[in-house]
């Protein structure tokens, strides 16, 4: 297994190289530059020209790429044109917020989806199953950003239960109050993200439970007098988790990649909001770094899914 993991990681190296070239070229192909309008709308063109020259933006793309790669291997992703600070420090500070949001969203997603999927499959065709299916259909049909806007309006403005912007209160002091304030700001976007994220898991799990409870090994267990509770716990549930486990790696990394909508709507200072702002300001160094990180996370998600699947089902081994 470890040899296979090492081989997969080695295969990822040329993929990351190709990804970095494509990302760098696409970022450079964007119209405009990072200086026009960011200094002064009436700035002297000569000043803009000077800034472009000293930052190497007039160099050939392959020379700019080579300089970027050399700095990358030294742990230097360059400086942000907009925020005037190292990209590594800027992304690191935002990554903590995104990680907290992704972690809470993932926990809530599986805490809601797993019991709902099993319950719907166990009571196939009955009222609880119908209610859960209607919920999944309605949620699936509504765009995610609409769910976020409706959630902010109801729970943020009408009821006033949760804050609608930021990641922590500005007047917070003490580590305990800091953690409490952070979770208070995270809960609404995490709950809304979890409600949207449960749809596919519930549908997959419901279908797998229905198929599993009609299988021969379940019939055999019932004939031997095994209690229904034990059948669902030890036989049906574990076998039904296989397709869910196959997508678990993608789900984990997808939460880190797919927080752009959530962070933008909630003005949550994470990597997603940083990415959107960087595109607006043509902040090439931040754009290339973030897209490269997102690409690497997707590659790692594939490997992580295989590892999780092999852990859930001992019959499956990565070879």
Description:
With 319 residues, this protein is mostly helical. The protein has a single domain (87-312), classed as MetI-like (MetI-like fold). It is 74% helix and 0% strand. It has 14 helices and no strands. The radius of gyration is 24 Å and the shape is globular. The protein starts with a helix and ends in a 7-residue tail after the last helix. The model has no long low-confidence stretch (mean pLDDT 77).
Low-confidence segments: none
Strand content: under 5%
Radius of gyration: 24 Å
> How many β-strands, per DSSP?
0
Look at the structure and name the CATH superfamily.
Answer: MetI-like
Q: Could you name the key traits of this structure?
A:
cell membrane; membrane; single chain; 14 helices; MetI-like; 319 residues; BPD_transp_1_N; transport; mainly alpha; MetI-like fold; 74% helix
């Amino acid at each position: 297994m470890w040899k296979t993991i090492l081989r997969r990681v080695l295969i990822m190296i040329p993929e990351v190289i190709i990804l970095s070239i494509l990302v760098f070229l696409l970022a450079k192909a964007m119209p405009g530059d990072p200086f026009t309008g960011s200094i002064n709308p009436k700035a002297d063109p000569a000043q803009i020209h000077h800034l472009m020259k000293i930052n190497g933006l007039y160099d050939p793309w392959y020379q700019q790429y080579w300089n970027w790669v050399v700095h990358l291997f030294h742990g230097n992703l360059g400086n942000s044109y907009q925020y005037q600070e190292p990209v590594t420090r800027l992304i690191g500070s935002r990554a903590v917020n995104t990680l907290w949001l992704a972690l809470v969203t993932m926990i809530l997603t599986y805490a809601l989806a797993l019991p709902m999927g099993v319950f719907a499959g166990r009571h196939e065709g009955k009222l609880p199953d119908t209610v859960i299916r209607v919920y999944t259909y309605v949620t699936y049909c509504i765009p995610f950003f609409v769910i976020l806007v409706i959630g902010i309006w109801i729970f943020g403005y009408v009821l006033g239960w949760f804050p609608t912007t930021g990641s922590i209160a500005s007047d917070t002091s003490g580590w305990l109050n800091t953690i409490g304030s952070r979770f208070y700001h995270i809960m609404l976007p995490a709950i809304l993200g979890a409600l949207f994220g449960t749809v596919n898991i519930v549908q997959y799990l419901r279908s797998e439970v229905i198929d599993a409870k009609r299988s021969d090994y379940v019939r055999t267990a019932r004939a031997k007098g095994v209690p229904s509770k034990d059948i669902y716990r030890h036989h049906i549930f574990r076998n039904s988790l296989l397709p869910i486990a196959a997508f678990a790696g993608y789900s984990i990394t997808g939460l880190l990649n797919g927080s752009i909508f959530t962070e933008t709507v909630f003005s949550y200072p994470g990597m997603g909001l940083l990415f959107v702002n960087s595109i607006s300001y043509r902040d090439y160094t931040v754009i290339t770094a973030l897209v490269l990180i997102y690409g690497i996370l997707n590659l790692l998600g594939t490997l992580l899914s295989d590892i999780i699947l092999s852990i859930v089902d001992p019959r499956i081994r990565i070879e």
